[in-house]
Amino acid sequence: MQALVIDDSRAMRMVLSKMLQQAGFETVEQAGHGEEGLERLQEMGSADVVLVDWNMPVMNGITFIETLREKDTTTPVVMVTTEVEIERVEHALAAGADEYVMKPFTCDMIVEKLRMIGVEV
Amino acid sequence: MMILIQEEQIREIASDVWSGFLGMDLVACGDEQFSEGGDCMKATVVVTGDWNGEVTVECYAPLAAEAASRMFEVKPDELSNSELLDALGEIVNMVGGNIKGLLPGANKLSLPCVSHGVCTIPVPCERSVNAVFRFENERLSVRVAKWEESES
After folding, report:
1. pLDDT in tens, A38-96
2. Which among A9, A53, A95, B125 is least surrounded, fewest beta carbons within 10 Å?
3. Which of B20, B106, B109 shows the shortest C-beta gap to A82?
4. Using CA atoms, how far apart are residues B118 and B100, in angstroms rounded to an integer?
């Protein structure tokens, strides 16, 4: 299994990558913003899940999801963000995110969300 | 206009981030003065919209290094400055984002700004709320400040 983590914080990418590896992902690729995430995903060919932050420079998470969904409606995408308002959750889901995790989170919360969208971890 | 955020709410959010996410149990303490000297680090996110102001996390470098070492999984003395800045930026991002969720109206959160500088003693006023914590021998301050209308 392989995953892609997109977050402008390298510390957060490290934390999420470690959690995904503990959950059974053999490969976890990283990107620092949405544009880089689209490039990385193309290089990967496919991903079993993408975890993406909302607020990032260059291309934010919402634009990333909208751009991805124009050509790829199947790759599971989980938004992992500090945007905690219900309106924001609805916005992300409307843009094409499959699930939503609020920071701060635990490994169990990530695993639970992945299972809810059918990712076998 | 009052700030609308209570010190207890700041304490709860800061504890969720530091204890729940980083495994560092903060102890609430009084509004004690930071010891003089040392490398102070300050991380800020700005909230704009119906409510305008900022959320600041302030501590000395050893505490930031302890937090960063848990995120990067390296020893504190092996961290680069950019890793320290990155980690503290993500911490204020989490704290600020959750505080924004308690504020009225529609608001946006800026990307974090982190710097080294001089730790300050905030002056209590109706436009700011400050919560001070201790982790072992290090102190941490979280401040929520509402801007004057003219600053917005």
Report:
1. 999 999 999 999 999 999 999 999 999 999 999 999 999 999 999 989 999 999 999 99
2. B125
3. B109
4. 26
Residues of A in contact with B93 (CB under 8 A): 9, 55, 82, 103
Owner of token pair 């409606």: A73
Contact B97 A106 (CB under 8 A): no
With residue B114 as reference, give the H or E element that holds it. strand B113-117
Nearest to A51 by CA among A13, A11, A9: A13
What are the chain B neighbours of A110 within 8 Å (beta carbons)?
Answer: none
- B78 touches A: beta carbon within 8 Å: no
Q: Which DSSP letter does residue A1 get?
A: -
Q: Please give the Cα distance from B40 to B43 (Å, whole number).
A: 10
Task: Please state, in angstroms and rounded to a whole number, the distance separating the CA atoms of residues B5 and A73.
Answer: 41
Residue B105 contacts A where some CB pair is shorter than 8 Å: no
Structural domains in chain B plus CATH codes? 7-30+38-146 (3.40.1550.10)
What are the helix (H) ranges across B16-80? 61-72
**Residue A55 contacts residue A83 (beta carbons within 8 Å):** yes
CA-based radius of gyration for chain A: 13
**Residue B31, beta-bridge partner list:** none
- ipTM score: 0.89
Residue A84 with chain B: CB contacts under 8 Å = 97-98, 100-101
Q: CA geometry: angle at B89 spanning A90 and B132, to 5°?
A: 100
